Amino acid sequence: MVSTELLEILRCPHCVRKRKATSFFTKMPGSSARTVAANTPSWMTSPSCSLMKATSGSILRRTLSPSPRRQNRIMKELLADLTSGDDERAERSIPAIANLGLAVIPPLLDLTRSEDSDVRWWAVRALAASPHTRTVDLIPLLSDSAPEVRAATALALCHHPHEEAVGALIHTLSDEDALTAGLAGNALVKIGSPSVPPLLKVMEEAPTGIRIVVLRTLSEIRDRRAIPVMMKCLGEESAFLQYWAQEGLERLGLDMVYIKP
């Protein structure tokens, strides 16, 4: 028995006149979604068309949306580009990988466990670009054996800051790689206020080199709880500690002359 909707579609003058054109555009060999979209006749999207009414545009949406099988193929190709060893090719793949959404996160996390540090680095780079990356998935990568991967992870946490990463980032401030330590400080700045108490704790017991990184971080966070520490550091022998103490106080609006009693 023919349904009422189908009869309406068959009777629709728009559909009858243009059915051949529709077949051409949707069945054209090798046609991409972009090609179909560019060549789709305006009558197909017209509210007066019975086909559009009956399907609510589902036919057009299915034509423009890649099938799961095709999406998986696209993902594999992009991940192959990412891990190709060609930096330019890998970098070009990043926006498209990010556009794949949540589905690409598990494969990227698998790549962070690769034996090749270059593959791990690019996996972290792609995770940093994705809005679907969770901070908790990045934290373990701060302990990677390769300093460049640790640095990339600290930078990724600047894009995905969350209070749950504070402890690991505080530990990373003492990383033997200066770039990684500095980027960990930047991530703590992005997290902001929750970073302040543990940073103040580090200022009490850490060696001078780490205290410099910590004080720079505190000065950029601009939290008034750090004022006593900054004032104390004005009398330190280290010129770097003096500089960041003064810089931090000025950012807090406390640019004044201090007189020793």
Q: Can you summarize this structure?
A:
This protein is mostly helical. The protein contains 17 helices and no strands.
CATH architecture assignment of the largest domain: Alpha Horseshoe
Domain module tally: 4
The coarse silhouette is: elongated
Helix content: 55-70%
Q: Can you identify the CATH superfamily of the largest domain?
A: Leucine-rich Repeat Variant
Name the average pLDDT: 81
Structural class determined from secondary elements: mainly alpha
| Beta-strand content estimate | under 5%
Give the end-to-end Cα distance, rounded to a whole number of Å.
100 Å
Low-confidence stretches: 1-47, 50-64
What's the helix count?
A: 17
User: Under CATH, the topology of the largest domain is which?
Assistant: Leucine-rich Repeat Variant
Topology record:
Elements: H1 4-11, H2 13-27, H3 33-39, H4 50-55, H5 58-64, H6 68-82, H7 87-98, H8 105-111, H9 117-129, H10 135-138, H11 147-159, H12 166-172, H13 178-191, H14 196-205, H15 208-221, H16 227-233, H17 239-251
Tell me about this structure.
The protein has 17 helices and no strands. The chain is mostly helical and 261 residues long. The model is unreliable at 1-47 and 50-64 (pLDDT under 50). It has four domains: 4-64, no CATH class; 67-133, Leucine-rich Repeat Variant; 135-191, Leucine-rich Repeat Variant; 192-261, Leucine-rich Repeat Variant, CATH 1.25.10.10. It is elongated, with a radius of gyration of 28 Å.
